[in-house]
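Appendix C reproduces, verbatim, an entry submitted by the partner laboratory led by Prof. M.T., so that reviewers can inspect both the input and the predicted structure.
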Amino acid sequence: MRKNRIGLLGGSFNPAHGGHRHISLLALAALGLDEVWWLVSPGNPLKPKAGMAPLEARFASAITQARRAPIRVTAIERELGTRYTVDTLRALTRRFSKQKFIWLMGSDNLAQFHLWKDWRRIAHTMPIAVIARPGYEVRAVASPAAAWLRRFSVPLSSFVNRGEWSAPALVTLRFDPDPRSATAIRRADPDWASRVSGPPPRDQLTHRLVRSAEETTTT
C-alpha cells in the first residue's frame, strides 16, 4: 500500500493569508500530494520578535485560510519539544512512519537555508521542493545551500513518477507569482491580531487546544 505523501510547510504565519493557501494547493497538485501540513512555529530565531503576533492568533488565521482544503494546521513543535527544524522533521518521520514527507519552502528561505542548524541533515531527512518567489531567485541560486543541493536536483516529472521518494532530492516548482505577503498585511493592518476572537483553536494533528500562554521558544 502506498504511503500517504505529505508536504510540510513551516513558518510563522504572521498572519496566514491566501498566498499560503495558493502555493500549498499548487504544490499539492504538482507533486501528487495527499495533504499539506502547515507547521505554525511558536517562534523563529531568524525573524525579529517585534511585530510577532501571539501563537493563538497566528494559528487561528491559519485555520481560517486552510478551510475546505486538504491542509492540516499544527503547532506540534510544542508537543515534540523540538527547538530546531532538523529535530522537528526527524521527530515527525519517527512519529508518522506511515507517511512520506517532502519539505516545502520558498526561494527566500533557500537563500538563507545555510544558516539553519544542520541544514544538510534536513536535506538527508526528506526531499525538498523549492517554490520560486519573485525577487529572491538571484540570492537563492547564489546561496551556499543551493550550490550544495544542485547535485541532487531532480526534474519535477521524474520526481512525481518515482515509486519511492529518497533524499537528498531537490525539485523546483514554478508557479505564477502571488503578490500577497504577511509583511504587506502587517504593514497595512498592524493590529490584525487584536481582532482575532473566538475560542482557542484546536491543533489538527494533536487535537490539543492552542493557547498563546503555552508558547515556548522554538525554531
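The CA atoms of residues 80 and 91 lie 7 Å apart. Additional entries are available on request from the coordinating office.
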